[in-house]
Write a structure and sequence with these properties.
heterotrimer, A mainly alpha (596), B mainly alpha (505), C mainly alpha (100), B: 505 residues, mainly alpha, three-stranded mixed β-sheet, 3 strands, C: 100 residues, 2 domains, flat
Amino acid sequence: MFTSFIHPALILIIGALILPFIRGPLRKPYLFIIPILTFAAVVSNSSLSGQFGTYQFMDWQLVFGRIDRLSNIFVFIMGLMAIIGTLYGLHVDNAKEHIAAWFYVAGSLGTIYSGDYLSLFLFWEMMALASTFLIWFRRGKRSNAAGYRYLIIHTIGGVILLAGIMLRYQVVGDIEFNLMDVKNPELYTWLIMIGFGLNAAVVPLHSWLPDAYSSASFNGSVFLCAFTTKTAVYTLARGFAGFDILILLGVIMALYGVIYAVMENDIRKLLAWSIVSQVGYMVAAVGIGTELAINGASAHAVAHILYKGLLFMGTGSVLYMTGKTKFTELGGLYSKMPATVIFTVIGCLSISAAPFFAAFVSKSMIISAAFETHLNWAAWLLMFGATGTFMYNGLKLPYFLFFGKNNCSRETWEKAADPTWNMQMAMAAGAFLCILVGSVPSLLYALLPYPVHFHPYNGYHIAETFQLLGFAALAFFFLKKYLVPEDKLCLDMDWLYRRGGSLFVWVAKHPLQWFDTAWGEAYRVVGLGPLMIISRFWSWFDWHGIDGVVDGIARCVRAIGGRVRTLQSGQIQYTIYYAASFTALLLIAYVLFQLS
Amino acid sequence: MDSLIINEGFPLLSFLIFFPLAGAVVMLFFNGESFARWWTLFITTITAIISIKLVTGFDLSTHKYQFAEAHNWIPQLNISYILGVDGISILLVMLTTIIMPFCVTASWKYISTRVAQFMICILIMETAMLGVFMALDFVLFYVMWEFMLIPMYMLIAVWGGPRKIYASIKFFLYTLVGSILLLVAIIALYLKNGSFFIPDMMWQSYSLTFQIYVFLAFFLAFAIKVPMFPFHTWLPAAHVEAPTAGSVILASVLLKMGTYGFLRFCLPITPDATFALAPYVLWLSIAAILYGGFTALAQHDMKKLIAYSSVGHMGFVTLGIFVLNMQGLEGAIIQMINHGVTTGALFLCVGMLYERTHSRELSVAAGVGKYMPWYVTFLAFFSLSSFGFPGTNSFIGEFLILVGTFEANIWLALAAIPGAVLAAAYMLRLLQKVVWGGTNNPDQSYLADLGFREIFTLTPFLLFVFWIGLHPQPFIDLMHTSVVHLLDQLTNWQQQQNIALLTLR
Amino acid sequence: MNKLIDYLSERLTIVIWTCYGFLVFIMAYSLYVDKSHAHTWVEQNIPFFWSVFGFAAAAAIIVIAYWFGHSGIMVKEDYYEQDSSSSCGCSKTQSSSEHA
């Protein structure tokens, strides 16, 4: 197509800014077209390779378009998800939600394409800010608070990232965004990793994710689940591939997410914990760092975006139609929302890595990579986690939501139905892609950064998967009663800053407040008062002192003039008399002077 | 004459100077109100657009006077008509031409009586101001210098506030006193040199006593214009009583003539005196910065507050000039432009508020933010710029000046810092009172927010605030070569004097 | 699809026995499948390895989650609201007094 680089984020930003002016029947086609144009730009850029869109800003070279296979695959799936997500929310009337979503995607695309830290940071913050609005647009009381927490945490993460970037610039001297020296990590390496890791919800910086994603609007979550975390995975893959601590962190994430998801009652919070868990796989793969591992991380990112988007769309449909998100208020919905059930179950099978569904071809890459580098402990733990994934996502979620005991109130039951055409179409597209990726893995493998020598479909792998899934299902059915959801809140590390907050408030209210009041009084009495007194003095001085002199001179002159004026009587004899006397005096003085 | 690059083609500078005058003459015959406004707007806009050609055609690599024109005027007295711009004056010329159309749009509704005469005054002022910045012959310079006194006087005396007679006469006489000594100095220089051509008078070896007298004469004239402490008291009176356009012209352009005079005349023509007396001038500048800050803090008349803030800002400019190093000089010139933009904009804002409330008192204007959101947005940005907030234009100027001062003398820089703090104090106080007020604000609900004309007037100022603040390089590039040349000449001079002293021993 | 589910739920015992049969089939298949792709010794040599692993892992997760949740992590739904409302109440009065 075009031989030059078109930044897809630009299309989205301009499209978002024009959106409020497109009303009425034009809006839905417009909403549909802009993400498609963005995706077209992405596809056309994928034929290029290298650095584009460079811009010299003062001392630094900003690179807005760094294209290689790693960035290509990520922008590809992001662009695709933008289409599906916008289609899902096509009927939402509030233009601001779409604008926020598009700015969010633009931030993600910009981050992935950026070749230097400065433009990365710009788009990073764009993502954080836009996504906060997506949370706020649900407009519940809890959403407001959750949005603020999200914003504060992401701002802190942004500050840490910025500190790392500046420190690194001081040490290294440039702002290029490339692989860090992971064998010898410095302070700035850790800071930047923490900054990226916070967005990737690395434990212990993960609590914002379930909090925020379950509080967002039904279509906001579809966007949220895809972009922030996977963009962070990309940045980790770009900058920290092979950084060993990530393996440990990834495994911890994977298991931590599983345990909390199993306990969870809110369907979307369960999925959010599942994000933590699945991103853990990707983070661990990045930590492993081999070609197979990075391929696995990228493939799993693509698969994850597809099936997590599908799952959030399914549960979002439940939220949209019934207004409820808790297992204890839902259940037995299969008869009222059959299409949703089918799509959601496809998503559940995808995340569980069932054969012919998406994660089958990607999760195994990561596990193989772990085994191949002899990190057996990690591989076994990740398989352990995979079993758990199937358990809560492939069994618990569909069973307690759609089948099982019907906890619906009559009102909920009345409202439950399959959602609008655009939502179903978006889900169908997602489901189709999940199955496509799972069944024809070569399509996905062709996009991967490194050459692929991995073949997921062999008898052994299928046998292994079926055994795993089958017997896990067996265990599920035997121990079902221990899994019945309870209407409870699960405390997590955010307890520290949410509960800890009230201790902080006590300290602020009592000792600090006293000190501040005393200081303020001192400032007023000792500082402000004398300052104003001095100022008023100088102002008085200016008027009475200096101007007194000036005006005084003027008044003097005028007075003299007034006196002299009276001399001017107009009678010529007096004038002659004065003139003659004056001349005589001058002559005498001159003669005397000459004589002496 | 070899310091001139003669402009062979269209006489751009003469056109810029006399085109507004021609426009004024036309208005002698057609003096309808509406015609006067549109015609003046047209003339000033054309002048501004054509002056852009100065920038595009400006050669950044030479320090000589460009677009020069030289003709004999009164050969018997060696008076010539010589014009030219260099890096130092081009920015001031652009400031003048670009501000004028906005002065006209700001006076659209403000001036309702004798509109045609007002516009004639404005056009004559533009002629005179441009003439001052472009003149390279001393007589021409002096003529233009005096030429702008009359229209300014009339601007204040006819269309001014309650104490307009007092203010206008004070302004006129004050400035005239300085100018008299300027004339004496010019004649003394003519007697020494035999011509009135200014570049030929530079870097000559006059005796130290002669230089000091000439410097003091120049200094008085320019110090009154700047205005430096303690010769500044005409400024608050003039600003308060002048109409909005008059205040803008006064603050943005007229005050710069004083500092331009320092740069163009005091430094090159009397360098020994400059070196000898620079410390006194520097401490006087510090006094101006602090004094302006304190007095501004005590004001409750908005225009007076901004007038005193001008004293402080121009103190920074003279500080930058007399530290005699690269950053100081460049900072001073940039700050001249910045002050023109920002203080001009602030006077426009106060004028807009005055048009609505008919009072300049802070207490009457308290709490308008609720009803005039556009207005307070503009006001906020200009206030931030006024005290040198990073990202705005004044930050660049003040920063450069402070760096230059720091290099010259640490104590000076430390003494200047409280001035910056005071600037923040009084600007934020103004902003706080106007935007939010207190608990007993007057009822401001009758206020209408900015109209299209007013937004159109203010927006270019805001644009320049951020342009210079974020990307000052083009502006610095324009002046750089000339400043380098000036500094080189100064250092050479200093070295020559040192060598001369050594050889004398 | 509803019809299908209703059809199956009427014949639940048949469905359950079919599932058990499928599990037995898988176990048998695993004995004969080509294990050359296996990564570790345990996979290759222990029969029915993955079946046991799947069952044990799932059971372990269920038990761990149950124990973890009931040991104090699961609390009332409005745990943070009651906490923030008590502190919010104080700060609200303070801020309102400042405004006055």
